[in-house]
Amino acid sequence: MSRADQTDPGQSDPESVAPLLGGEAPEVEVLVGSWDVEGGRLLDAVAVMDRLRSPGGCPWVAAQDHASLAPFVLEEAHEVTEALEAVIADPDDVRLREELTDELHEVRSRILEVIDAHAAESGPVVWEDPRWKACLFCDACRAELAVREDVGLAAGVRATTRARLVDAGVTTLTALAERTRPVEGLDDEQLAVLRSQAGLQLIEPTPQEPLPFEVFAPELLARLPAPSEGDVFFDFEGDPMWRGATATDTGLEYLFGSLTASGDFVPFWAHDREQERAALVGFVDWLRERLQQWPGLHVFHYSGYERSALTRLAARHGVYEAEVAQLLEGDVFVDLYAVVKSAVRVGSRSYSIKALEPLYMGDELRDADGVTAGGDSIIEYQRYREAVAEGDELEAAARLEDLRQYNEYDCLSTLRL
Question: Residue 142: which residues within 8 A CB-CB, separation 6 or more?
Fold first, then answer.
């Protein structure tokens, strides 16, 4: 119960004070003051969270830990980092102030609203309660969507798209796969894509076809460059939570992982800014030497992160900016994520490289234990740093080996794809 639901005997009216004054009510006016002590609302929030995380509370809230919350924190941190970079470039830029002011005001207002609502009720929230927004992607939302075969499970369906489909009576994957009539707010091409996507996701995987798929633009796949003995399959590992000597010195690319077409894994490690610069120089020099031997080689990667990170690193360290720009502006780097999205549909809500691996990794699928996802790698690198700080060389080496294997597998997956 919150303090708003409790009475305050002794201050609410003169009669309640009478027993303290020998049975007579005071002849003075009693003014009721606020008894919300400083930090009281925070204690309300703690009480609500304690109830939600306790047995009988909210299963999703109870299941959260640092690893599961990391992606949400990182998303917000990236937005603030962009605003910080803008202020560094131009001290008069107002984006940081606006970002923080808007975010803090919105978050504070929403937190107070949620605290008051939860404090006045008992039990977890109910799915599709109009007071609460569903992200559609967290574990709790995925569980609710799966139970209902909800249309929000279809890849490419965001909250606004789902709302339009639901308004049109399209509430399940099956209904979407069978929908032929128009849906207000969606053009015919968009609806056709979503219909095909839903149909693929409804196909039950088999040992012969572990991941249903269709190639809808074979001509785009045909544009992929011919293989070269010098080809490289590249993947970064980074720690966005890393902090340097100043408040604005954040984020470290600690591993430049490269797998050659012949199967050699070449890592470039960095655990501070100086080493990060050396890793960038080493990687670019190594790649340029290979280009001299194999002028037709390509560097394959999955998603645009590798390109943007290389550009950012060259600018940060003031080294090889022209060389990196030349590599990226040519046709050396090939983003396989863009290729997949432009030509292939798969029966999965996710198009991450991990989700595609049943197509081509066979019996070599990722082990469920250890480092298996980007969020895991961030936590694992933090554990490595803690081991170094404690002087535990064996533990630090074991953590780095886990990260190396994770990165090498990502590179191998890119090659197989």
Answer: 136, 153
